[in-house]
Fold this protein.
Amino acid sequence: MRTLFAISAAALLSAALPATAKIVAEPAMASHCAEAAATELGVMMNDVLTLPVERSGGKYHVYGQYPASGSDVTSFECQYDSKRSYLGLNMKGHHGHHTEAASSAPRTAQRACTDMMGVPVKVEKVSKLRPGFHEIIMKETNSARRVACTVSDKGSIVDWVEMN
């Protein structure tokens, strides 16, 4: 009975405490930051560039940008406190690198199509076909190959057309 009380008291105490920020190991900070930025921008993590972790003013900083090159970039910074707790993401610059149409397709649908390509791609256009389905037109980053992928919002590819 005493053990049950101890467990119940611990559960009540932990429920009353505020949630703590995610603690991230220093070697994983750049990857964690890239994932946070990619999610915020609605792009693939592979398309985000991050620099090595810097430490200054008692905090850890990870700087990066999307896209990896060019003049019209969104720069960002992730901050972690001295105990490596994630403090947040700050963005500066143009945030609209993916089209409005691309942002309207569920990430699961976009991910299914871009993963099927197997190489870095640029999403050129996303069109809603009917409820629950989109057509995503992609171009390989390093070639002229273009593909039209018809996909359900849940990520099931129903059609794949090589456009070249």
Summary: The first strand starts at residue 49 and ends at 50. The chain has four helices and nine strands.
